[in-house]
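User: Good morning. I'm curious how adenosine monophosphate would be positioned relative to this chain. Could you predict the structure with it bound?
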Amino acid sequence: VRQHQQKGQRVGLVPTMGALHAGHTSLVDAAKHHCDRVVTTVFVNPTQFSPNEDLSRYPRTLNEDLALLQMHNCDMVFVPDADTMYPPGHSTIVHAPRIGLPLEGEFRPGHFDGVTTIVCKLFQILPTDDAFFGKKDYQQWCVLRDMAHDLNIATRIHGMPTIRERDGLALSSRNRYLNPAQRKRALGLRSALDACENLFQSGERDVDSLQNHLQQTLASHLIADDQIDYARIVCQRSLQPIPSICEPCVALLAVHIDGGRHTTRLIDNQELDPTGS
Ligand code: AMP
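Assistant: Good morning! Here's the predicted structure, ligand included:
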């Protein structure tokens, strides 16, 4: 990275956990567009999984990932193992900023500390000019933006649009867990966000009405064994609740799609901007 920078080249970073899909490669493409060189990291970060989550089951498809990265002209790939990133005796963590407390912070305690710790470490190892994250993980992007600001990290943080299947399902490495019936229910996330956005576009600005519509539409696509962690509308900047929509907001969803032995947790979101920008 430093050799490229010494030649006056800009270097972009795309951190991932692998099992790459078109959402990840859109970040590589954006980085290629914005920078002279791109480095992608592939690391399933154990510290962002809690004991009851899917760490051991998380898909690992390194050969396919490398082929895909080559197709997208990614210049460098960093694939550390867990002992390299967390050698015995490792004990320092980066505590996530305040914006990580609600929503995912309520339902996945400690998750964002794992995310901020690993991304901060990646920024030290790969001191790139830019880093690209998906707004599909909306709160994660906010957390990393605030961490970079608070810790005077020089890397510029970019939030990029969500890439979806043709029918609207946000691409996710976890989609591969879904059978056809579960996948159909998973489409409820996008349907609920669309319903909410349509009501917003028709002029509704009352948060309770929009949120009720969001929650009811979502629930109508799910079965009793699925579980909604949250379906809320909050301020885009702070992720705090707002009384009415007079500033940019975002509708955020997190749902467990039941699969018998395993459930698949999916998230999605939709920005709602009354200023029309
Ligand atoms: P992950 O491998 O799930 O940790 O994701 C790595 C990066 O890809 C994160 O910045 C995600 O927000 C981003 N990402 C994942 N899915 C999508 C998607 N459907 N569209 C855009 N970016 C995505």
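The radius of gyration is 19 Å. Strands lie at 11-16, 37-42, 76-78, 130-134, 156-160, 227-235, 249-259, 262-272.
Let me know if you'd like a different ligand tried.
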